[in-house]
Amino acid sequence: MEHVAVRAETQEGEREATVVVTLEGSSWQVNIRAHPRDWERLTSVSDTDWSRRRAVRLGSVEGSAVWWHVSDDVLHLNVGDGGPEASDLAFVVSLSALRDVQAVVAAVDDDWG
To answer: What is the mean pLDDT of each run of 10 residues along the chain (113 residues)?
Structure first.
């Protein structure tokens, strides 16, 4: 599985701050946006079990929901408002990317307002 670069940054919007997490492979990139407190749900992702149809809804890509779940020791990010099974787009990345996302989100400035 290819290496995935992960970074996070805050963006001040018109209404409230947003944390944007960027995952980037050799030929693709995805930006996932969520309120700073929503990123706390990352801790629940490792407990998901797709064989039992459990996923965590966290963040958005271009206004569509992102569903995070673990299956066969890899991380799945499904994008689409109909849930993971009806997603329009999916990314399958190494489970280490989840730990990287947790680390970069934790490193983002704590003064999110």
So the answer is: 92 79 96 94 91 92 96 94 90 95 86 50
What tokens appear for 112 in the block? 């999110």
**Cβ-based neighbours of 105, under 8 Å, separated by 6 or more:** 8, 19, 21, 39, 42
- pTM for this predicted structure: 0.90
Residues facing 6 on adjacent strands:
23
Q: How far is residue 74's CA from residue 53's CA, in Å, rounded to a whole number?
A: 15
Residue 61 near residue 30 (C-beta atoms within 8 A): yes
Sheet holding 5-12, edge to edge: 5-12, 17-24, 29-34, 56-61, 64-71, 74-79, 89-94
Instruction: Find out whether 105 and 8 touch, Cβ atoms under 8 Å.
Output: yes
